[in-house]
């Protein structure tokens, strides 16, 4: 299974190397880019205020709103899980895919976070989006125990040289996987991941 995944990874990254770098910005609507920026800064109140002022058009933005409401105690777990059902069509742009990867990751839906990041990786022409997708794929590989694949992603990110500080923290986890058990975020994600059915690429 790991050899198959590595083969797929190599093919995808070769494709990305041929097509990426022609744009500095990931595809997506202005609305998606605004919500993505707020999501990355965890500006939950601001997200709710934005949605109240301007009706949401993007499915991905609506799901980010639900996450914000959940974080603020304005929506329960059932509401957000119902919102995330039938999410296949939500990955409508690179920005939407990256946003959804963040949403899924925060909700411990590691395989779905992996799928969304992979979707962004294979479609992007943006160097920044590629780096962000590779970072998330590294994290999900560590959580799911795919250490060889995580090291492959890390080597690609090292060549790019754009996230050296992040790599300084993440690389030791790939080289010494036992340290994940002491990590405050990845250890909990791994425990949650082991309790749910694998949804990778569904």
Structure description:
The protein is 68% helix and 0% strand. It is mainly α. The radius of gyration is 17 Å and the shape is globular.
**Whole-number mean pLDDT:** 86
Task: Provide a count of the helices.
Answer: 11
Structural class: mainly alpha
Estimated radius of gyration: 17 Å
Helix-strand string = HHHHHHHHHHH
Query: How many strand units?
Result: 0
Largest sheet, if any?
none
Helix percentage range: 55-70%
**Regions with pLDDT < 50 over 5+ consecutive residues?**
3-8, 14-21, 198-202
Tell me the distance between the termini.
17 Å
Strand percentage: under 5%
Form type: globular
Which labels suit this protein?
202 residues; mainly alpha; 11 helices; globular; disordered N terminus; disordered C terminus
Task: Give me the secondary-structure topology.
Layout: H1 2-19, H2 30-40, H3 44-53, H4 59-71, H5 77-84, H6 94-106, H7 110-123, H8 127-143, H9 147-160, H10 164-175, H11 186-193
Helix pairs in contact: 2-4, 2-6, 3-4, 4-5, 4-6, 6-7, 6-8, 7-8, 8-9, 9-10
Write a compact overview of the structure shown.
The chain is mainly α. The chain is built from eleven helices and no strands. Helix 2 runs parallel beside helix 6 and helix 3 crosses helix 4.
């Amino acid at each position: 299974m790991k050899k198959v995944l590595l083969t797929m990874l190599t093919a995808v990254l070769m494709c990305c190397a041929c097509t990426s770098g022609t744009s500095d910005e990931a595809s997506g609507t202005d609305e998606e880019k605004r919500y993505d920026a707020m999501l990355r800064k965890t500006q939950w109140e601001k997200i709710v205020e934005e949605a109240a002022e301007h009706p949401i058009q993007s499915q991905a933005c609506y799901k980010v709103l639900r996450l914000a409401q959940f974080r603020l105690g304005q929506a329960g777990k059932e509401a957000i899980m119902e919102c995330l059902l039938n999410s296949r069509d939500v990955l409508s742009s690179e920005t939407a895919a990256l946003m959804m990867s963040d949403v899924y990751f925060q909700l411990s839906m590691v395989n779905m976070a992996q799928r969304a990041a992979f979707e962004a990786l294979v479609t992007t022409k943006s160097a920044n989006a590629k780096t962000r997708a590779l970072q998330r794929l590294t994290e999900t590989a560590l959580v799911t125990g795919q250490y060889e694949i995580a090291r492959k992603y890390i080597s690609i990110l090292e060549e790019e040289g754009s996230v050296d500080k992040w790599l300084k923290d993440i690389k030791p986890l790939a080289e010494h996987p036992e340290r994940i058990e002491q990590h405050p975020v990845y250890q909990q994600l791994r425990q949650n991941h082991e309790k749910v059915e694998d949804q990778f690429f569904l």
